[in-house]
Design a protein that fits this description.
Length: 883
């Protein structure tokens, strides 16, 4: 399906040499779509300047550059030269549209080196695909879906001067403030006025149930806000990690960003009661997050709601307006005198400022307070008054109001007729949003929308879906498509853009939206796509069981790559929980489909990508990148094979080669994988270099919030520290990792850390603790760990001088190790048997055990272990000899 921006891009290309014309193209030339780029030449760019901005961003999009920012240096001529010297698609667009002279077709064909038939076929078939890809890149550059809030500041607040002065002083002095008050008392208006007078950057977020009431939905908005003010740490990490960050890591990045701001930022949270009424786990996480924000220096926090947010934040109550303030408001709006008892009128509106605002709109037309009060007495509430306001509008303004009622988010002003907007603004029915956007007054929208029937709403949803899609707001477009019953279109719009929508802060909306689509009303392919999307989102928040259930509910038919991806996703879900055996089974299914193993799968994908870059796009740099990643995978695989074979020198060579490739690629994720592998091999050889390799991997995974990978490397580090006789350090790290894996019920890694703890306590002669942890190892029944658990029981019995029991345990451990071909474990057990037999003066048995251990260590190339055995045999009074 053609991208909805494809026709607009074609218009831009046809008029590329006319910047003044480009600056009038709607909606591309609007502040809402151009975002931060709109200010490239100042706050109020001319049409020609807007056209120059469009030239820049479209040229970048055609080049495939998506990480450019407005504050960087830009040279349009240089970008065009890159397109001219680029791949086949880029050269096609350059010579057809962007060259300074419009060339005849036969000259174009010669410049491109194509046959005439090929050229025309490319213009027909390839150009739409090129523009589709460019449209996606353009939206990644502009990020129109990432909209920050701007609270509507009232033109005048009556009776609040003293309260505002007190609130401002408290906010400056205490650094944090919680405003509480009843519904309709004017909390948001007062807070918006405070924010408007703040001498520094202001971030505003209105909590909406199930839409943005998760930490994952807040972080992209905070990142965009800080980036707009020149602080990039949070935004960059979110971009790297696809919108997913550990909240503690995010808080650290926010702290660093705020420290770089010239003036303290004010963070405002409206409708905070959303997370306090019936708190869910994600509400508790969000509550903790905002409390932690309040501890950041160079940041002030303003919380608005109808109940106390936290006992440790100062609170200021907002009481209903006094009679004199309402009267001042009335007198400022109209010159007429009230024709209805004033105190009775105040009783009717009950201090509700929203109701007072509606009355002040109506008074302009009715000219009689008594008539309005009669309506209120007959029909208490706002509905009847809103209906009366609508009848005051002209037909075209009424039609526009109906259309705007379908939008829950601010939309560009330039999309609507200015005359109709003027009448709505005359009656104060609109409020301004961020970057020249607008929306209906929320109270009016809510009540008017409720009066529309399902049949009346459907075409409005269809229209709103098209508008949001045109603006690159895919989640919002999909929401309206679902409401209109067009589920397939919703999936077509949303699924390809789902990762960028997460980065735009629509995580909560996406979760709720997908739950509204009935699987049984979708064709098989769309149902499968929906299940994948739901599983990815569930994985994002750690709902692994829910994610797997969603995948299991759809048929695994379709292309090999799709079926393999579903099994890979299942494996990722198991792996995230530490369920290694189940993960491997899922990966094996994917491998079977692709007829290769996991490393080969990665390598083949990189090879295919490299060949596509080379053969189809002539993009040599991208092809080299793919080739380098293929070499990385190959080196990693060769290292792993040598590691499993016990050839540790060769394994080191393979892993070091992989690290060299990762460093050449400047890819931190690949570097972390290589460091973790190098650490394992150095640990086997008891080389202290392992510690630094482990720590590099741990720091990287912690920095991106990948707590599972970090804890795994901590587990391996703890095991190594135990092996080099640092039991206290091993216990400290293993306990931390053990606690983490307990929380996510990862049996394999719980068992591994239990092994480490058992071994460390043995080294400290703490037999009871060692025995308890050894039995826990056996409880988890991990095949690779059972020999070690039995070995620890043998060591404990040996320490207690229960030699018969110890011998039985150790021989059992040897047999279990042989069954799984773990030569390293076999050697360790034979060494312990040597000590047992020597202590009981069974010297021939001790010699046999010593020979078994030394032979195995020699096969494995573990020279330090051989030296340790030789040293021990040397002090055996000649009873034992190492060959």
């Amino acid at each position: 399906m053609t991208h909805i921006l494809n026709p607009i891009l074609r218009t831009v290309l046809n008029q590329f040499d006319q910047p003044a014309e480009l600056g009038t193209i709607q909606p591309l030339a609007t502040p809402a779509l151009l975002g931060h780029w709109y200010d490239l030449y100042g706050a109020y760019p001319s049409e020609r300047q807007r056209g120059h901005i469009i030239q820049l961003v479209v040229a970048y999009a055609l080049l495939g550059e998506t990480q450019v920012r407005p504050e960087q240096t830009h040279d349009l001529a240089e970008i065009l030269q890159q397109l001219r010297a680029g791949n086949r698609d880029q050269r096609l667009v350059y010579w057809r549209f962007l060259h300074e002279h419009k060339l005849p077709v036969h000259v174009l064909i010669d410049e491109l080196g194509l046959a005439k038939a090929t050229f025309h076929r490319d213009m027909k078939d390839r150009l739409p695909l090129i523009l589709d890809q460019a449209a996606d890149c353009l939206l990644s550059i502009l990020q129109p879906a990432l909209q920050l809030e701007r609270p509507p500041v009232p033109a005048q607040l009556y009776g609040r001067a003293e309260w505002l002065a007190e609130a401002y002083a408290m906010l400056k002095h205490e650094q944090h403030l919680c405003i509480i008050g009843s519904t309709g008392v004017g909390k948001s208006a007062c807070a918006a006025t405070l924010a408007n007078t703040w001498q520094g950057p202001v971030f505003w977020l209105t909590l909406l149930p199930d839409l943005n009431d998760q930490v994952e939905s807040c972080l992209p908005l905070i990142g965009a806000f800080l980036q707009h003010h020149g602080a990039y740490n949070l935004a960059q990490h979110l971009a790297i990690e696809g919108g997913k960050l550990n909240s503690n890591v995010a808080l650290g990045l926010i702290r660093r960003d705020c420290a770089s701001l010239t003036n303290p930022a004010l963070f405002c949270l409206d409708q905070s009661e959303v997370m306090l009424k019936q708190p869910q786990p994600h509400h508790r996480a969000l509550h903790s997050f905002w409390r932690a924000l309040a501890a950041i220096s160079n940041m002030h926090v303003l919380i608005i709601g109808n109940r106390v947010f936290s006992d440790d934040l100062p609170v200021l109550s907002l009481e209903p307006l006094e009679s004199s303030a309402f009267r001042a408001w009335f007198d400022a709006t109209t010159t007429m005198q009230p024709d209805y008892p004033w105190e009775q009128f105040l009783a009717l509106i009950a201090g509700n400022t929203h109701l007072m605002r509606i009355v002040m709109v109506l008074i302009q037309q009715e000219r009689s307070l008594a008539a309005i009060c009669a309506m209120l007495e007959a029909h208490p509430g706002v509905s009847s008054l809103i209906e009366r306001i609508i009848t005051m509008l002209g037909p075209s303004a009424q039609q526009l109001l109906t259309i705007l009622a379908s939008f829950q988010q601010p939309i560009p002003r330039s999309l609507w007729p200015s005359n109709d907007l003027q009448q709505l603004e005359q009656y104060q029915l609109l409020q301004a949003g961020y970057r020249d956007t607008l929306e209906l007054w929320p109270l009016l929208r809510k009540h008017y929308w409720q009066q529309l029937s399902t049949e009346q709403r459907q075409p409005l949803h269809e229209h709103a879906a098209q508008v949001h899609a045109l603006l690159g707001q895919w989640t919002l477009a999909a929401e309206h498509a679902i409401a209109a019953g067009d589920y397939a279109q919703a999936i077509v719009w949303w699924f390809p853009q789902r990762h960028s929508e997460i980065r735009a802060g629509y995580f909560g909306r996406m979760l709720r939206m997908l739950q509204l689509i009935p699987l049984d009303q979708l064709p098989a392919r769309e149902a499968q796509t929906l299940a994948i999307g739901q599983a990815e989102l569930a994985r994002f928040i750690g709902s692994y069981d829910q994610a797997r259930a969603g995948l299991a509910a759809v048929s695994h038919t379709g292309s090999d790559s799709l079926r393999a991806y579903i099994h890979q996703l299942e494996g990722d879900l198991w792996e995230a929980q530490g369920q290694i055996e189940q993960a491997m089974q899922s990966y094996e299914r994917a491998i079977t489909i692709l007829d290769t193993n996991h490393y080969h799968q990665e390598a083949i994908l990189y090879v295919k990508r490299g060949l596509m870059h080379l053969n189809h796009e002539r993009d040599f740099e991208a092809a080299h990148q793919a080739a380098a990643k293929t070499h990385f995978i190959a080196a990693l695989l060769s290292g792993e094979i040598a590691d499993e074979e016990g050839n540790y020198d060769l394994a080191l060579q393979g892993y070091q080669t992989a690290l060299d490739h990762a460093c050449a690629l400047n890819d931190q994720a690949l570097q972390a994988r290589a460091h973790a592998s190098l650490a394992i091999v150095h640990a086997r050889n008891e080389r202290t270099e392992a510690i630094e390799h482990f720590n590099v991997a741990i720091r990287y995974y912690q920095s991106i919030g990948n707590n599972v990978r970090a804890a795994r490397n901590q587990s391996n580090l703890a095991y190594f520290l135990g092996e080099i006789n640092q039991p206290h350090e091993a216990i400290t790290i293993a306990k931390e990792a053990y606690s983490f894996f307990k929380q996510i019920n990862s049996r394999f890694w719980i068992s591994l850390n239990t092994m480490t703890l058992a071994n460390a306590h043995v080294e400290l002669n703490q037999c009871d603790d060692a025995e308890r942890y050894a039995h826990e190892v056996l409880h988890y029944e991990e095949t690779a760990h059972v020999p070690f658990g039995v070995y620890i029981l043998g060591r404990v019995a040996n320490l207690k001088q229960e030699f018969t029991i110890a011998e039985r345990y150790l021989h059992q451990s040897v047999q279990l190790s042989q069954a799984i071909q773990d030569r390293f474990m076999q050697a360790k057990v034979w060494r312990e048997l040597t000590k047992l037999f020597y202590a009981t003066q069974r010297y021939p048995d001790a010699q046999h055990a010593l020979s078994q251990a030394s032979d195995l260590y020699q096969q494995l190339g573990l020279n330090k272990e051989l030296e340790r055995i030789q040293h021990w045999a040397h002090h055996s009074n000649g009873q034992l000899v190492v060959n």
